[in-house]
Amino acid sequence: MTVSNNPLWLYDTILRDGAQREGISLSLTDKLTIARRLDQLGIPFIEGGWPGANPKDVQFFWQLQEEPLEQAEIVAFCSTRRPHKAVETDKMLQAILSAGTRWVTIFGKSWDLHVLEGLQTSLAENLAMISDTIAYLRSQGRRVIYDAEHWFDGYRANPDYALATLATAQQAGAEWLVMCDTNGGTLPGQISEITIKVLQGLGLDGRSEHQPQLGIHAHNDSGTAVANSLLAVEAGATMVQGTINGYGERCGNANLCTLIPNLQLKLDYDCIKPEQLAHLTSTSRLISEMVNLAPDDHAPFVGRSAFAHKGGIHVSAVQRNPFTYEHIAPDVVGNERRIVVSEQAGLSNVLSKAELFGIALDRQDPACRAILETLKDLEQQGYQFEAAEASFELLMRQAMGDRQPLFLVQGFQVHCDLLTPAENPAYRNALATVKVTVNGQNILEVAEGNGPVSALDQALRKALTRFYPQIADFHLTDYKVRILDGGAGTSAKTRVLVESSNGDRRWTTVGVSGNILEASYQAVVEGIEYGLRLLTCGLTNQEVIST
Ligand SMILES: CC(=O)SCCNC(=O)CCNC(=O)[C@H](O)C(C)(C)COP(=O)(O)OP(=O)(O)OC[C@H]1O[C@@H](n2cnc3c(N)ncnc32)[C@H](O)[C@@H]1OP(=O)(O)O
Ligand SMILES: CC(=O)C(=O)O
């Protein structure tokens, strides 16, 4: 751990509280991989789990005893002892000792309601549970973080008793007193006020190494977990608990991907090194991949859209000086600026894309305005190019006279047979016929598919393979359909987005028509054309698939 002038201690609990989120289930390997990634990111405290609660968490701590982390303290979590039980015989406390960590986090009750109704014990016994547990763990050589569960609710209900629980933890030897907004119902103003009263009530200055310091563990049920954490810090807390991407029980925990840059870049706390901060975005994405939840494109700092500029006015200004529409430089957190094309675009968006695509285009060139007008006209018809950059590049190249036809589809037909025989689930229920001209040769080809779009794609690729054998590596990887004017019923316009891949790159094309097959055909044909141009004309801008 680094010591600095304005230290702020980060504590990630994704492996424990994050795993309490509905929909997340981490394997042992996932937990180890995430722990190592957080270690590399420079998080000083990583809560690894509750060793007494399940065998996976027991194994996790054993595994880390074999191969320790590089810089982080791995922390084992547990409750105070059970009412009227001895600490020496409490299985949970024995399990937390077996975890072999230097630091442990113990949670205990602050709210008289929880003591009386949840634990069904007396207020005095709860104080004894806190005191005995912490003193026992200290006697066994452990350093203790005390998580005061329901701290803010407890303080509001009975401030004297709530403060007595923290004073008890302090006297028993806890080095951190963490105020938990367990139900996530507290608003920012109350956080500041109560944090200041706690420091006064316990006679702490909030910074001395010789006294316990305060921490904050905020849940996001009111949508204010990040704000609450920032205000607790400004009021004197020096530890922030949260999780990467804000995963956690119910609505989640305070999102460290938002907190870290705010604390470090705006409030000037020393959290992690600048070179570690530059891995924040990749860490966020890796972890969302590991927990199998789609990344939030609009997440502050790390979302794909966090530095995406769509409005023409914004793009024009950002190209002159990025700080006109960006609160920080994206690369500081490992993110990137993106320019999006749509009906909200101006010439600056078109020029920016031209540069990205390697197309020489000048603002004064009439083609530039013509491209913008075509873009707006097509978007008015229902096309959407912000998600289909490959189609936009083809549109630009067409306008620049740089799109010689590689093949010409003369026509196609599709037949569907919806009665899949029960005894043969692999039966391909669609048949497509295509007529294509390549290099002056007419080809007629037929193929089966699982559905009409697949059959059409297969037939086209079959027809073109003899001229372009690389097509064998192309695949349709995603297919999205959107009805544009639902009120028109079955004659509504349909927009189809098709994502294609050749194994190491992927690209998206768009088609729009009143006929879903026609819209699919446009998107599929452009997808194949784009893939061929990637190979034959050296296009390089499309997304590289990481392996
Ligand atoms: C605020 C938080 O997020 S705290 C962390 C919450 N996380 C989890 O609960 C996930 C892991 N939990 C588990 O695996 C299980 O709940 C276990 C192993 C901890 C306990 O399982 P069980 O013994 O079957 O008890 P169960 O889950 O039904 O009930 C919880 C027990 O803990 C007791 N308890 C709750 N808080 C505390 C505390 N701070 N100190 C001591 N005991 C407590 C309850 O009174 C109840 O005990 P009782 O049944 O003897 O009255
Ligand atoms: C400890 C904890 O997770 C909470 O109080 O929310």
Automatic annotation (TrEMBL):
Q: What class of enzyme is it?
A: transferase
The record's listing under SMART domains reads: LeuA_dimer (SM00917)
A GO MF annotation of the entry reads: acyltransferase activity
Q: Which terms are listed as keywords in the entry?
A: Acyltransferase, Amino-acid biosynthesis, Branched-chain amino acid biosynthesis, Isoleucine biosynthesis, Transferase
Q: Which residues form the Pyruvate carboxyltransferase domain?
A: 8-278
Q: In which pathway does it act?
A: Amino-acid biosynthesis; L-isoleucine biosynthesis; 2-oxobutanoate from pyruvate: step 1/3
Write down the chemical reaction(s) this protein catalyses: pyruvate + acetyl-CoA + H2O = (3R)-citramalate + CoA + H(+)
The record's section on Pfam families has: HCS_D2 (PF22617), HMGL-like (PF00682), LeuA_dimer (PF08502)
Enzyme Commission number(s) = 2.3.3.21
- Please state which protein family the record places this protein in: Belongs to the alpha-IPM synthase/homocitrate synthase family.
PANTHER family in the record, alphabetically? (R)-CITRAMALATE SYNTHASE, ALPHA-IPM SYNTHASE/HOMOCITRATE SYNTHASE
The protein depicted here goes by the name Citramalate synthase
Q: Which organism is it from?
A: Synechocystis salina LEGE 00031
Traced from the root, the source organism's taxonomic lineage reads:
Bacteria, Bacillati, Cyanobacteriota, Cyanophyceae, Synechococcales
Gene encoding this chain?
cimA
